[in-house]
Amino acid sequence: MIKKLIIFPFGGNAREALGAILDINKQKKEWDVLGFLDDDPGHWGKDLCGVKVLGGREIIQKYPDAKILAVPGNPNNYLRRKEIIDNLGIEKSRFASIVHPTVIVFPDAKIGYNTLLITNIYVGSRASIGNNCIVLPNTTVAHDSVIEDYCCVGSNVVISGYVTIHKNCYISSGTSIRNNITVGEKSLVGLGSNVVADVEPQVVVAGNPAKIIKKVGP
Question: pTM of the predicted model, to two decimals?
């Protein structure tokens, strides 16, 4: 059965998501993408590959049978991801998850709802990726690792075994995280970092080895 889908907001992650969906549909038509939503009226009516920005979030109520993929998130607003997604005010059963055909998910791994996995990702044995997460291309989530809800993980990231990334974190592209590491809630790991020690909650770390750059707000 082909499912209707609306993507929110009209940002970089949403455009990447559309590419993944188009690849899924090449193998077997699964999704009818009705359009994008965005809170900025300046985006309304814009078009990407024939898919338009339909308007603001009020459009959700006009299509009650459509699934929603909500993928906000960048280094500047990652702390607000939970607020932005929760403020859509929809039941979790309405959220979709999108997994690109090139993604390898071990049979005993778990993927949550409203989670986007783009190309060439590996999710190992007993690994878990939570709800409302984004993982960008060419990333490895090794065995027994846990990525909790509302996290964003960039491209070309290596998350070794038995790593725990707590809620609402941002792991920038090119990062490597050693096995048995814990990244505290609401922390950001900077571009190309090597994480060899636990990361405190609510900090920004960067470098090789990664060190605290600053604290972040609640």
Answer: 0.95
